[in-house]
Amino acid sequence: MTTELAHPPARLLSVGDAAWTVEFGNAIDPVTHGRVLGFSSLLDTLSNEGRLDGVVEWVPTFRSVTVHFDPLRTDAMVLRDLLAELAGKSGSLSAAGCRWRIPVCFDADCAPDLDEVATAKGMARDEVVCLMTETVFIVYMLGFLPGFPYLGGLPEALDMPRLATPRKVVPSRSIAIAGRMCAAYPWESPGGWRLLGRTPVRLFDAANARRPALLAPGDQVVWQAIDRGTFDAMERECAAGRFDLSSLLTEG
Amino acid sequence: MSAVLEIIDAGLAVSVQDRGRTGYRNIGVPVSGALDPVLMAAANALVGNASEAAVLEVGLSGPSLKALSGTVRVGLSGEMGAQLVNTRGQVLKVASWQTATLFPGDVLRIGGVSHGVGYVALSGGVQVAEQLGSRSTYLRAAIGGVQGRAPGVGDRLQCDAVRGDPWLEFRARAPWQHDTGPIRVILGPQEDYFTHEAVANFLSRPYAVTRDMDRMGLRLDGEKLAHNEKGAEIVSDGVAPGTIQVPANGQPIVLMADCQTSGGYPKIATVIRADLPRLAHVRPGDALHFVAVSHTEAAAALRGQVQRLAEWVGTIQSFRPPGVIDEAALYGANLICGVVRGDEWNLHGVNLQSGAPHG
């Protein structure tokens, strides 16, 4: 009961006639996200037990979980009441996913915005790289593009607004920052985040049906600096499908 | 038995689609799928497929398909016609809402869609490989479709060969008609980010369709929808196809099948499932009107649509196209029976008595 009373009740918001958003708060913070993870975990359990008839899938975000359902198979208002009840008792879960150590090349051609960020923050280039590689980032959610992770935990010293004019092309596998967030672009796409490095590792592989996205909400990520030679060698291994992604997992 | 078609003209804005890719939105994979699942089901019904078998969605102009092996039945839905050029050089017109059967060597040239999308169903469905549980194409991440892309010249598409009489065609009694009237929405999830006046404007003023539309979204233009003191940005949360997001400029964007899974603009409302297919057929300059409904009304509208589609499918009948005379069967029948009985041919809807050798 104490955990129930400690939390404000979740809000249930309509996303049309085929989804409900269960909203736990308005902010990006570990407490709100803990409730998102707790609720998602309860849905996992119930779904595995076959007790969420008509629910198609759910999407955890920073602060809410959007539950998509089939309105021909389940009554929207009955599901709403069930979700509200579950949100009241699902409690919190701390981020307890995998811990990854992911190689990143911070050389100039992989990191077109690194010098500008260093200058703006009155730091040396190496100091920025140090902050990036010393931080344990937490995956809050995936969105925007398949496999695109939003990582929290960027030190305040690197807090920079988005580019005034977004790039038309961000190279795939770029590591980028905006505000207090960090992210990695699995795909080449337009984007307004500042590019501080690039990983040789593929972040999304549709052919890997069991785990198409490398990262999942709740995972921890540490960037490990590599030189350009190592980057090139690893990039070739990854492209040839010879790279063992599980070698990036670390203990604790 | 399988059959193979070759793409000899790729058309424009053609993609393989099915019901869409669910189960992966939590890792950022859009649901994709047919922009108009009702018309997809209609095309599939014509060729005897399950309603969600993979089809070719045509956004601008249709492809030209040549049968390489096996007989293939092709069903068309939407405002889109075709020409069948057979191996004897005959050119036969094929209307929408009916089938055409291709023998090896025959070519079907599918024309442009006069507005919105049209669908091309193949007997047995388009059998490209499933990726993440669906054949639907999502171009940006090269998922699904023909190796992650649109079908191109020289690609070969596999489907099933026709079972039963290949000289029969099928057609519906009339074209499918979508509902008319205002587009029905459910308000939220962030209608509380807008002024009362903005919500009232949204539900009373016309919003014009702009040229800025694709499988991801549809930008509208109309009376500015002002955000209240909460502002024009939120911490990103979940969206769905049909969701109407409003950025700082106050002009609404309706998200479509390929939309991202989450977004950071306040969302004033979401188009209900039953009405979302209608937005696949709007043209620049069309004026949209929105009306708010309850979940109960939305569910009734969707059930009504499913019922109406079942009734439409019930009107599909077989016919023998005039001009296509099964010469082999005629001679074969003569060899066996000696005479062709007129009533046999009448059964198939075409009176061939006068033309039959012993009629």
UniProtKB/TrEMBL annotation, chain A:
Keywords: ATP-binding, Hydrolase, Nucleotide-binding. It comes from the Bacteria. It is an enzyme of class 3 (hydrolase). It holds the Pfam family CT_C_D. Gene3D superfamilies: 3.30.1360.40, Cyclophilin-like. SMART domains: AHS1. SUPFAM superfamilies: Cyclophilin-like, PH0987 N-terminal domain-like. NCBIfam families: 5-oxoprolinase subunit PxpB. This is 5-oxoprolinase subunit PxpB. It comes from Aromatoleum toluvorans. The gene is pxpB.
Automatic annotation (TrEMBL), chain B:
Coiled coil: none annotated. InterPro entries: CT_A_B (IPR003778), Cyclophilin-like_dom_sf (IPR029000), PxpC (IPR052708). Gene3D superfamilies: Cyclophilin-like. Residues 26-309 form the Carboxyltransferase domain. Keywords: ATP-binding, Hydrolase, Nucleotide-binding. It holds the Pfam family CT_A_B. The keyword Translocase does not apply. SUPFAM superfamilies: Cyclophilin-like. This is 5-oxoprolinase/urea amidolyase family protein. It comes from Aromatoleum toluvorans.
